[in-house]
Write a structure and sequence with these properties.
7 helices; 312 residues; single chain; alpha+beta
Length: 312
């Protein structure tokens, strides 16, 4: 999908344009080859730069080419499954040229959606540097929000595991742990991009935008710390539940072994009196009850000993 936006001069509101004009913001979401060719032809940006962010495995980085600057950062995404959410990351590209501002991503993202819906204060398409900082700031905020949701989901899954050990809950914890690894890696890569952004001359820096940049750095570092803490907690939780599951299995096996021993005693006695040879009490009327008495006399003491040894 290809959308172009301009900022109205009087009201300072964002307006969707019918076509690509100079000074506009071009937003590409999972674009087709025809849309990429059109943008490349009008803006003069190479298709390799436009397609860079369309690779799911693309790393976060900054690249300059013929006066054009490409900034790739990782953004959080959420996949809604039938019974739970799966968190992951995806690259998003920001391309600045002397006349255009271009964003490229494989999916619709709330990071850019907030700009389209007018939820960002002091937003101006023409102020490119501030626009970049605001995107990075909202991206860090989205990471923090997702991290909090992961923590809440983890607590809920752990409570379910306390009641019953099921594969479903364990798979959910594994998905959350994997998401935290993705988040931690992506946030560290984004921090490298932010540090690099401060040093390069391809992006003009303005003193009035320094407060936004400082907020970006603070929020991103906070997200890194939260991701690291949650990942360590999740790793310890998974190890703890693995030990609990192993311990529960040992308890079950111990119980079954005790039941097997109890059942073995009457089986042995009954087998002896069931042989086709002469055995005591074979010719008496009360022989059956005598054998039952022998079984009870042996089984009950063994059962008492097992109970005292806490084998049940």
């Amino acid at each position: 999908m290809l959308d172009a936006y301009n900022m109205l001069t009087q009201s300072r509101e964002l307006k969707k344009s019918d076509g690509i004009e100079k000074g506009c913001w071009i937003n590409l979401e999972n674009p087709s080859d025809q849309e990429l060719e059109e943008v490349a032809r009008i803006t003069g940006v190479g298709e390799d730069l436009l397609k860079a962010a369309l690779d799911e495995e693309e790393r976060a980085r900054i690249e300059t080419d013929d006066g054009n600057t490409l900034i790739i950062v990782d953004i959080p995404i959420i996949d809604d499954r039938s019974d739970w959410y799966v968190y992951s990351t995806l690259p998003m590209g920001i391309i600045t040229t002397p006349e255009y501002f271009i964003t490229v991503c494989l999916r619709d993202t709330t990071v850019l959606g907030d700009f389209v819906k007018g939820r960002v204060r002091n937003f101006d398409v023409n102020k490119r540097t501030r626009f970049i900082y605001q995107i990075l700031y909202l991206n860090a905020i989205k990471f923090l929000h997702c991290l909090k949701q992961i923590d809440k989901t983890s607590m809920r899954v752990q409570q379910s595991l306390h009641r019953s050990m099921k594969n479903k809950e364990l798979i959910q914890l594994l998905d959350l742990e994997k998401a935290l690894v993705y988040f931690s890696t992506s946030l560290n890569s984004n921090q490298i991009v932010i540090d690099r952004l401060q040093a390069i001359n391809a992006i003009k820096h303005y003193e009035e935008d320094n407060d936004i940049l400082d907020d970006v750095i603070v929020e991103n570092k906070q997200a890194i710390e939260m991701a690291t803490i949650y990942r360590d907690i999740m790793s310890g939780t998974m190890d703890a539940f693995a030990s609990v599951i192993s311990n529960n299995q040992n308890i079950v096996m111990k119980f079954l072994a005790a039941i097997t021993i109890i059942l073995t005693i009457p089986t042995i006695v009954a087998s002896i009196w069931g042989m086709n040879v002469g055995v005591p009490f074979a010719g008496t009327v009360w022989g059956f009850w005598v054998v039952i008495g022998i079984i009870v006399a042996i089984t009950v003491p063994v059962l008492i000993i097992m109970i005292k040894k806490k084998m049940f």
